[in-house]
Design goal:
The protein is mainly alpha-helical. It is built from seven helices and no strands. The protein has one domain: Methane Monooxygenase Hydroxylase, Chain G, domain 1 (Up-down Bundle). Helix 1 packs antiparallel against helix 5 and helix 4 runs antiparallel to helix 7. The longest helix is centred in the last third of the chain and has 31 residues. It starts with 5 loop residues before the first helix and ends in a 9-residue tail after the last helix.
């Protein structure tokens, strides 16, 4: 088996996040459908890898699969919203864009950390993931206020809350992945 290329997989995840981000404002379902081949390719690729020892390989591959599964849920939720023509308020769209942008930033930092294992950068990723989780909770509370005041529709509410929870879960898995990466031996340059 070949050695896992975490940086390459994280680049593909970053590309998927870009499609998701672009689809939030544009309601372009084709952008979401374009993510499926990338997702499938990553899942197939993960099955082929072995890292430095069996336990590290298994843990990192499982964590990457969990990250991918959250992206699948995000795309499915967004596709469902577009298919049913459910509208979000401008504020909800901005909040989702902000959170997805923050996740993209963490993935980009994680790409660097997968190569350098810079402990300061890993700490930054962990703090950033915690911030995303807290911000998503805050957005959920603000959303409840919009729902009560009638700004948000109940159909949109369920999807929006599911999106926030999925983003939080993604941040959690990225945080745990950064911790796992910090323990890998550095690759020798060939």
């Amino acid at each position: 088996m070949k050695q896992i290329e975490i940086e390459s997989i994280l680049q593909k995840i970053d590309d998927i996040l870009q499609h998701i981000s672009n689809s939030i404002r544009s309601d372009n379902i084709a952008l979401l459908e374009n993510t499926q081949p990338f997702i499938s390719a990553i899942l197939v690729e993960l099955k082929q890898y072995q890292i430095f020892d069996a336990e590290a390989s298994k843990e990192i591959i499982n964590r990457l699969e969990k990250v991918i599964n959250t992206l699948v849920r995000l795309t499915n939720l967004l596709k469902g919203r577009i298919d049913k023509q459910i509208l979000f308020s401008a504020k909800a769209v901005r909040e989702l864009e902000y959170l997805i942008g923050s996740i993209k930033h963490l993935v980009q930092c994680l790409k660097e950390a997968s190569v350098t294992q810079n402990q300061v950068l890993i700490k930054y990723i962990i703090e950033g993931a915690n911030n995303i989780e807290n911000t998503a909770d805050s957005f959920a509370t603000q959303h409840q206020e919009r729902l009560i005041s009638g700004v948000c529709q109940p159909q949109a509410s369920a999807i929006f809350i599911d999106l926030l929870n999925t983003i939080k879960e993604n941040a959690y898995h990225l945080k745990e992945l950064s911790r796992q990466i910090s323990y890998l031996p550095l690759k020798e340059k060939g």
